[in-house]
Amino acid sequence: MRMDLNRNQSNAIIAAAERFYSMMESAPVPGIRLDLRGRAAGQWQVRNGIERLRFNPEAFLLDWHAHFPATIAHEVAHSLVYRQYGSARVRPHGQEWKNTMAALGFPPAITHCTPLTARRSRVYIYQCECRSHRLGPRRHYLVTRQGYRYTCTDCGRRLLFGDRVEWK
Hints:
The protein is of the alpha+beta class. It folds into two domains: 2-104, Zincin-like; 122-167, no CATH class. The chain contains six helices and six strands. The strands form two sheets. A three-stranded mixed beta sheet has the order 1-3-2. It has a three-stranded antiparallel beta sheet with strand order 5-4-6. Helix 4 crosses helix 5 (95-104).
């Protein structure tokens, strides 16, 4: 039942923010999903010009008052910054976002203290001249599929994948 309130409150915050910023009423309200996992309580996404707000149901179940409505306002603020500045190079939690949070009546908090269940992910072991390095799935993908090259900050040599995968 509370998750339905989450959806309604999100729409209410978005509507109030749009009125506050005199935004076009034709702009679609971002889609809302309760499917986020891991340590993040919320996430704002835009793909192909379509916005989406994702929330971690575990965060709301464990500590409702810490996340409702502050986490929702946090993600709505990202949406508003995107709508105001487009795809211009603005920092995710930069001054524009902080000003938007203040205008919505919320402190510009970036992190939360709720202990959430972390997903297990693969760790790929890479080698250089002096030691081994642990790269996550994203960086491993960039190396193997996109041709990125990473170097050791100590010896300056290129990191090479050693066919070893662990779980963290």
